[in-house]
Design brief:
- By secondary structure, this protein is mainly alpha-helical.
- The protein has one domain.
- Helix content is about 65%, strand content about 5%.
- Strand 3 and strand 4 form a beta hairpin.
- Helix 2 packs parallel to helix 14, helix 3 crosses helix 14 and helix 4 runs parallel beside helix 7.
- The radius of gyration is 24 Å and the shape is globular.
- The two termini are about 40 Å apart.
Length: about 375
């Protein structure tokens, strides 16, 4: 005789999450979280820093955002596969110097005569393709792609750690760029090249006063050629990551490389292509930065630049552990990071204090990534 046993009644129901907790969890997991955070940060600071909301300052914010966004997009792909690219700053210095040397319309011998590139890439009459902007840009892209190819090959085929490979690249390429010009800047760039970084499509005029209290008018760019280049690249990479097989492969490699290999994903090829893409993004960033500054600088990507790139990417939500990254997150991360940097400068803080605050914010973003991961695991 068998006795049917019914289901064991639950001892107690788990406590329901409070409405406030549900709202916080939903906000934490939202793709728009960093954008709302940026708007809240802006709203809180404006009463204390009115300069932050001035049209001239907002135009300056946008001009700082476009080159940073371009470089951070490449870092997003690298972090999504679980890596990091420390060589982007060095690529910027090398390619900006190379491009400027090739297309400069004149070369001052008193500045560059002792540089190894004098007489080879540039002379008093200018670069070897003086004024040919498209040839200079093409050479920059090829040089950047070669750096990314070397990095990716060493990482994918020799299983070397991305941190070590790109650290060596950063040191070696950075030193090579400085040696090429003996740490001198290359100026006299063609107007067509400068327009890529400073050319405007939509501008506004703002009344201003000089020291004599005589009204004058200044032109402030709202939408320039740099904005078009950065936006077009962001849209293209968003589609690449979200709508293509390559994008799915990038996420799969970052989530679980071994499982991706078993599933037939071309892991090594994907890694190489991602590092090439990162170097190409750094090269486009070099173009925008050097065009804006009207000079090729071998030290252009040094200092805290790499901190800004990684910070903007991590703050946006791209995981340091790989397997999770989106272009829209990086866009919002760049907005927040540029706003943060601008507000800290308006507070007249020293560079040391600014870097300390940025480091703390990046740490907070890493902790936020951990919190998001735990929330997702708890909801499954």
């Amino acid at each position: 005789m068998t006795t049917s046993v019914g289901p064991t009644p639950p001892i107690g129901n788990p406590p329901a999450a409070s409405p406030l907790r549900r709202v916080l969890v939903r906000a934490l997991l939202s793709d728009w979280f960093v954008l709302w955070l940026s708007l809240a940060y802006f709203a809180v600071l404006v009463p204390f820093l009115p300069t932050l909301a001035l049209p001239a300052n907002l135009a300056n914010l946008l001009s700082n955002a476009w080159p940073l966004l371009v470089v951070a997009l490449g870092q997003t792909f690298v972090m999504t596969i679980g890596g990091i690219d420390l060589s982007q700053g060095a690529v910027i210095g090398l390619t900006s110097t190379l491009g400027a040397a090739l297309i400069a319309t004149a070369g001052p011998p008193e500045v560059l005569s002792k540089a190894p590139i004098w007489g080879l890439l540039i002379s008093e009459g200018g670069g070897v393709v003086a004024g040919q902007v498209w040839l200079g840009v093409l050479a920059m892209l090829i040089a950047g792609a070669l750096v990314g190819l070397v990095n990716g090959t060493l990482i994918a085929w020799l299983s070397m750690p991305p941190f070590m490979v790109t650290l060596v690249s950063m040191i070696t390429i950075g030193a090579f760029a400085i040696w090429l010009t003996q740490s001198e800047n290359i100026r006299n760039l063609p107007e067509g090249y400068v327009a890529l970084g400073k050319g405007d499509l939509v501008s506004i005029y703002l009344g201003d006063k000089d020291r004599s209290d005589i009204p004058r008018r200044e032109l402030h760019t709202l939408i320039g050629q740099a904005a078009v280049i950065a936006t077009a690249l962001a849209v293209a990479l968003h589609l690449l990551l979200e709508r293509t097989a390559f994008g799915r492969q990038v996420v799969a490699v970052g989530a679980n490389r071994r499982a991706a290999e078993i599933a037939g994903v071309p892991v090594k090829r994907t890694i190489v292509l991602v590092f090439v893409l990162s170097a190409l993004c750094a090269t486009v960033g070099a173009l925008l930065y050097s065009a804006r500054l009207e000079a090729g600088r071998p030290t252009l990507g040094e200092g805290s630049f790499l901190l800004d790139v990684i910070g903007a990417t991590v703050i946006g939500g791209t995981s340091l552990f790989g397997g999770k990254g989106r272009v829209i997150w990086t866009v919002f991360g760049v907005i927040f990071f540029v706003l943060l940097s601008n507000s800290l400068n308006l507070m007249n803080l020293s560079s040391f204090h600014i870097d300390m605050v940025k480091g703390g914010v990046i740490l907070a973003a890493a902790l936020l990534d951990v919190a998001r991961t735990q929330v997702l695991r708890g909801s499954t």
